[in-house]
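Two proteins were folded this term; both appear here.
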Amino acid sequence: MRVSTATSRAGLFLTAGIAIFAPHQTVHAQEGQTIVLDAVTVEAESDDTLVQDGYVAKQDRLGTKVDTPIAKIPQAISVVTQDQIEDQKPRTLNEALGYTASANPNSFGFDSRYDAFFLRGFPAHYNGMFRDGLRQYNGPSAWFKTEPYGIEGVTVLKGPASSLYGISGPGGLVNVVTKRPKDEQFREVELLMGEHNRYQSAFDFSGPANENGSLLYRFTGLGRLSDTELPAYPDDKLYLAPAFTFKPDEDTKLTILGEISKSVTGGTAAFYNPSYGTISDIYEGDPAWNDFTQDQGRIGYEFEHRFNDLLTVRQNLRYNAVDADLEYSSHHSIGPDLPLQRYWGHYTEDMQNFVVDNMAQFEFDTGQVKHVAVAGIDYAWAQYDAYSALSYTSVDDIKQMPVPFIGGQEMNQVGIYLHDQMEWNDFTLFASGRYDWVDTTSTDATSTETEQDDSHFSSRVGLSYTTEWGITPYANYSTSFSPNIGFVYDDVTSDVASVARPTVAEQKEIGIKYEIPGYNAVISAALFDIDQKDGVVFDASTGINKQRQLDLNSRGFELEANASFDNGFSLIASYTNLRVKIEKGAEGTVGKELSATPNHIFALWGHYLFEGGALAGLGVGAGVRVASSSYGDDTNTFKNSSRAFVDAALSYDFGYRNPDLEGVSLQINAKNLFDEQKPICSAGYCYKDEGRSLFGSLRYRF
C-alpha cells in the first residue's frame, strides 16, 4: 500500500511547523550606521568518526577500524563530504556517488527503488553496503534505503576488504556515516519544492542536552510527497532519526543511533523491450498497481572506553529490519501481429539482521616502531522470507490473490581479525588478517531446507611512504571472500548441478596521494588489477533461470582531486579508465568485456561562493559526468552510446548582506540540466535515463 496522505502530510506539517515557530534572532544597528558582519558558518557535520574540511576528508575509521589520516592508508579511499552533499543535493545514494572515481551508479537508468551501484566494475549493492562501519545486509528485494539528508558523509574503500570486514565484494565497500550528535548547538529547518509536484520539508536539531555537556542529542527528520516523470510512480517518504551521545568522562563514550522510516516509490521502473537490445516508449507499469512500499528501522550503539595509553575497547552493535511490499507489472507478446498482453505481480519480503563488532585497540612501541593494533571478533545474523504471486488475468485478480511463501534464508557469520599498522620514520606498514565461518540455511517453497557451511581466510598487506613534500606513494595486496547460496551449473543445458563455490578475489594496487602543502587539497592516483573467481550470475538462455559461476578480471587507473580553497572555490574531479574482462563464463562471452561498463568515466564539479563585494553570499556550482560507450551485452554484439550529464546549483546566503537574515539561504539545483536521455543496456536488457529535474530549497540555520 502507498503511504497514506495523512501520514506523509503529518511529517510535512511537523517540520513546517517547526520552521514557522523557530525563534528568530535579530541584530540591530544604531541609526545612521551600516554594520557589515562576517557570515557565521554553522557546519552540519560532527567530525566524530569522519573528519572533513569542505570537500576534503582528513581522517576516517573505515580503512583501519581506528582513526587514521586518510593519506597514510595504503589503499584508495574516496569520500563524499557533508559540504558536497549540501551543494549537490543528491536525492539518493546513487546520486551521491556520481562524482566518485570508479563508482558507476548509472547501469540501470532511472530506478529510484534501489541503490544499485558498481565499484571498479563489480556490483557492490549486495555485499558492499556498510553503515557506520557495520555491514548492512540486503535481501533480494528488501534493501535498506539511504536518505541523503540523514547522513554526514560517504566513505568508499576501493578493492577487496574482507581482511577487516568479512563478507564483501572485490570492488570495495561503501560506508554511509549517520548524522551524529554535535557538542555545539545546531538547528536547521528546510523547505523544498520542485518539478513533478515535489514537496519536502526537513529539520535537523543537535547540541548539548544538559548543562555540563555530558549528554548530546540529534534529531533529524524529513517528510516528502512527490511524483516523478513516470506515471503513477511516486517518491514519498517519512524519515525520523534520533541519536544520543553520553560522555560521562573524557575516556568513555556511548552513541545511540536510530531510525524509523516509510517510503513509497513506483513498483515498476522499466520500459518494454520489443526485441533483444532495443527499448520502446511503452512504460511497463500499471497506474492501478504500481506501489513499492518499504518500512524500515534500525537501532544500535557505539561504545568506546579508553583504559589507559595502551588499551581502548569498542563495541558497535545494530539491529535493523526492512519490510518490502512490491506491486509490479509488465507486458508480454503473444504474437507478432497481436496486441501486447499484461501480467501483474505481487512480491513481499521481510528482512532482519543483527551485527555486533567487538574490538580492542592497542597502542605501543617496539624499539623505533610505533604500533596501533586492533584485535576483534564480530558476529552477524541475517534472515529473510519472501512471498510472491503472479496473475495474467487482471489487477483485481492479483489484489485478491494470496501471496504464497517462495523461499527464505538464514545466515550466521562469525569472524576473528587482527590488524596492525606500524610506523617507522616515514614508512607505514599495514597488515591485516581475518578468518570467517559462515553457516547458511536456505528454505525453498516446499519448506525443504538446505544447509551450507563456508569458511575462509582473508588478508591485506600495504606499505606507504610519506615524503616531506606531502607526497605519499603506496602499494597493497588484499583479498575478499563472499559465500554463495544454492546450486550452480557448469552447463546450463544439463541437470548436473553442484554446490555454489564462494566468490573470492585478490587485488594488486599501487598508488600515490598528494596533500598539497599550504592548501586544503588532495590529489590521488591508483593502478589496480583485480582477479575474481567464481562470481555468481543467472543464465536464462534455456528459458529457465539457472545460476552459473564466472571469473572476471578488472584492470584500471583512477585519478581523483578534492579541494576547498580559502577563496570560496571548491572542486571535485575524477577520471576512471576501466576494463572488466570475462575470463570464464557462458559460451561466447569468454575474453569479452562486461556489459554496461564504460572504459572511460570522467566527472568534474566546481562550486564558488562569493565572499566579498556586491555578489557576497552568491554561490554558483556546475558539474559534468561523462561516460564513454560500453557494450550492451556480455557477448559484445552491440554498444551503448556515450553519455554526458550536466548538473548545476545556484544559491544565495542572505546573511552576507543582512544580519537580520543570518542563517537563511536559498538554493536551486538542476540534475541533468540539458535533459540528456539515452537507453542504457546491461546483459541485453535496456533501460532509460532520467530526464531533467529542477528543485529549489529554502534553509534556515540558527
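Next, the second protein.
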Amino acid sequence: MPDLLLELRSEEIPARMQRKAAGDLKKLVTDGLVEAGLTYEAATPYWTPRRLTLDVRGVTARSRDVREERKGPRTDAPEKAIDGFLRAAGLSSINEAEVRSDPKKGDFYVAVIERKGRPAEEIIADLMPGIIRHFPWPKSMRWGKASRNPGSLRWVRPLQSIVCTFGPETEEPVVVDFEVDGIRASNITYGHRFHAPDAIIVRRFDDYAKSLEAAKVVLDAERRKRIILDDAKNLAFANGLELVEDEALLEEVAGLVEWPVVLLGTFEEDYLSIPSEVVRLTIRANQKCFVTRPQGEPEMLSNRFVITANIEASDGGEKIAYGNGKVVRARLADALYFWKTDQANLPDLGDLRDSAEKFGLDLQRPLDQRMARLDHLNVTFHAKLGTQGERVERIRQLARELAPLVGADPDLAGRAALLAKADLQTEVVGEFPELQGAMGRKYAELQGEHPSVCAAIEEHYKPLGPSDVVPNDPVSIAVALADKLDTLVGFWAIDEKPTGSKDPYALRRAALGVIRIVVENGVLLALLPTIQRHRMEKFYPEDLESEVSSAKKDGQRIDGRMINLISFFHDRLEVYLRDRGARYDLIDAVLASGSGDVAANDDLLLIVRRVEALSELLGTEDGKNLLAGTNRAVSIVAAEEKKGTRIAESVNPGLFTEQAEKALYAAVNQVEKDAGHAIQNQDFSAAMKALATLREPIDSFFEEVLVNVEDDSVRANRLALLARIRQATGQVADFAKIAD
C-alpha cells in the first residue's frame, strides 16, 4: 500500500512549540484522510528546529464508492419542504429524486446519492492547503510582499518549502501537487543550513531520513536528546566531572539544534561562592547550557559547563566555547552582585522602622529588612485581598493556630510565616522568581534562624504538583497549610473561584496541596472551624448575612461560601483518591453518609480512612453479601416510599412474629451502638467489622420473612426495620451509591 511523506520546512520553529505542532500535524492529516474515506496503518511525526515531518504508512490508494439513500418528504408536501430536501441532498431538481410508496404514508421522495471513490493523491491535494493555512500555532506571522494581501498565509516563521510525496515502495512515488501562498509542493528539501545547504531530492521516508542524516540533520528529536545526553555525560566524565542532568533543558536544547555537537566551557571558580541553584539557573536561562559537578560530590558544582552547538566548527569549537564562557561570566558577575547585595543593609533602612515594629522584626538582620520593606511598600497581593504585608499577618496568625494541631512550636511557626515571603524583596528572586523560597531558606540560614524555620520558608510552597514532595517537618506543615488555606479562603471570600479549565490563581493546586499535606502526614484537621475563623469578613460584601448558610456545625451557623469551599475540597479529594486507585463510588458513598451534609465531612483524613476501611470491607465475602442485602433493603424501602406505602415511625418489637426479624432487630441495635462508638473513636476498621455482623441476620430475614404482608401494621413495622438497616449502615457510607 502507498505511503505519504510530508515535510513543512520553516526558517525556524521555537523549541517550546515543536512537539505539540508535530502532534497537531499528525492529527489534522490523519483525521482528514479518514474523514475523506481513506485508511492508514501508522503515522509517525518528527520535528527539528526547522521542519515538521509526517510519515504515514499504508494509506489506501483510493476512497471507497459510496451509495446513500436519503428519505425525503411526501410528494404532496409544501414546496418549501421539498426545496429544503433538495438542498440537503445536493439535488438540482426534484426529477433527480425517486418516488417510493408506503401503504400507510403514501408516496414520498428518496434521494439516491452515489459518490465515486477518489484517488488518494487527489484527496491529499485538496486536504493539505486548508491544514497549512489554518494550522493552530499559538503565535504566527505574515512576511514578505504577500503579507499586505488579506488572507495571506500566517505561519510560525516564514514557510520555506513543502515536500509531499505519495506512492508504494515498489514504484516511484509521485509529488502530490498543491500550492499555498506561492509555495508549491515538491520532492526537494534542504539539509543543515551551514554544513549542507544544497537541494536534496527525496522519494519516500526512508531515503529522506538517510539523506538528511548525510546532510547533518538528525530528524528524530528523541535521538537528538539521547546524543546530547550521552555525549555530555561522556565529555564530563572524561574531565573528571559528572553532568547535572536536566530533562526540561534537554528537551529545549534538542529543539534548538539539528546536528548536536557537545562542547565544554569554563568560568572562574570565584563564582562558585554563589549558591549552586543561582549558578545553575543563570547558565541555564542565559545560555541553555548544562552545569557539571565534581564526581561523587552531589552538593557541589564545578566551574565547567556543557554547551550544545549546532555545527562542527573547524577549530573544534574553541571560539564557540569562548563566546559562551564570556556571556556566562558576565551573567554570573550580575548574580554575584545580587547575592552580595541581598546580604547587605537596605539603603532605605530608616523608612522601615514602623513596619519592623509592627511585625517585631530585627532590622539588624537582612531577611527581616526585606520583610519590613515588603510591608512598607504596600506591595499588593490582590486588589480585593489587600497587601502582601496584610497577607503575611494572616498567615502568621493561622500558622500559630495550626501549630499545636500538627505538633509544631507556635513561636517557630509564627517566625517562619513572618519570613516566608521576605525573599520576594531580594535581588536574586527578582531576577529568578523560580528561586523564591529556596533563597529565603539560604538567607535565613545565614542569619542564624532555627533549622525548622529555614526549612519552612522554602517548603511552605510545596507541594507544587502531584509529583512534588510534601513537607513533613511540623513547622513546615503548619506554614504550608496556613499559606494555602489563606489563599483559598481569600479567593472564595471575594467569589473568585476556578471556572472550567481556567484557574489563574492555581486554586486547584492549592487545594490538592492541602489534601496531600493532611493525608500524607496523617493530620486530623476539621477544616470548617478553621476557615470559618479565617474567612476575612473585611473582604466580603456589606450584606454579609446574605452569604451565611443555614448549615450548622457544633451549633454554629456556617458561612455559605465556606460550605462551597469544602465542596471544592471534596471534588479535589475525589480526583486525588481516584489517582491512587480508589473507587469513585466508594468516595461518593462516604461523602453521602450520615445526613450527607457537607459540613459533617470537613476532616479530609477521616474521609480517606473511611474510604480505605470501606474498600477493605467490600473486598471480603461478608462485605459483598452485606452490600447486596443492604441495597435490597434500601431498594424495598425506597420503592414503598415512592408508592406512598405507610412505614412505621419506629420499630415495635411487639409486632414481630418471626425469629429472623427478632434477630435482625437485635443485630441492628447492636451494630448502631458498636459502629457509632467506633466512629466516635475514629476506628473505621472496627466500624466496618460491626457492620459486617449484619450480613447473616439480613440474609436470614430475606429468606424467612415476607415484607409485604396483608396486615398493614406488620408490613409498616417490617419496612421500618429495613429502614433501620439503612440508618445503621448510613453512619459509615450510603450503600445505595456503591456499585454491586
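The domain at 349-506+523-551 is CATH 1.10.3210 (Hypothetical protein af1432). Residues 318-341 form the longest helix (24 residues). These notes refer to the second protein only.
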